[in-house]
Amino acid sequence: MRLTYRVEEGVRLGSLLWEFGPGWRMISSAILGGGIGVREWVLNAQVVAGYSRMDPVDHLVSLGPGGDGVGMMTAASVDRYVKASDGGVTCYATVGLRVPTWAAAPEGTEDPELAPIRVGTVNIVTVVPVAMTDAALVNAVMTVTEAKSQALVEAGFQGTGTASDAVCVAVRAEGPEEVFGGPRSEWGARVARAVHAAVRRGAEAWRPRDASEAGEAGEAPALRGQIGDRTTP
Prior knowledge:
With 233 residues, the chain is an alpha/beta fold. It has 3 helices and 12 strands, in the order E-E-E-E-E-H-E-E-E-E-E-H-E-E-H. The protein has helices spanning 56-63, 134-154, 186-206, and strands at 2-8, 11-19, 24-28, 35-38, 41-46, 69-74, 82-86, 89-95, 122-128, 131-132, 166-172, 177-178. Helix 2 (134-154) packs parallel to helix 3 (186-206).
């Protein structure tokens, strides 16, 4: 995984790039390369708060290395990513929680994502060193989401995530396929623990240190814990 920087609209922005190369299959909710398929890279690109470009796919393509890949965006600082591993599974999470929300919010609830300059997205990239069936991949995404939500609630946030969260699970394209990805399966349990650890650590570090910092601060406190690990999966 590689961290790089660029300048857009006068703002220094980071990007995390995982260059897997051939032999990987991914499932993702990302706007670029989403769905299930063979992919060679994943990009988690920081964008300016209040991002308003109407060509996000083209934008991500221009930032990627070319070829088939997955691209996601966040207004959170990607250099505050957190990495956690469990039994061969590795999870990377960038955590922004200015606007946590419940998935099943009452009808008519104001969309917090529409508030100006509110940094709030949780992007998760999880790497699993085995092959999985399509059904197991879908199950793995469910496991990632459940573990994320558990971590946020345990960290004291009133919400299951944010409305703009994205996820990507990368698995090997060849080899015996795992048929289960739920939290009680062998590999699903490892996914759950890795995601929970990364998101919990990121959420706890992101939280303002006291109520006086929670007001309209535009930046989260510096992330404590495992930061700046440039090791590839």
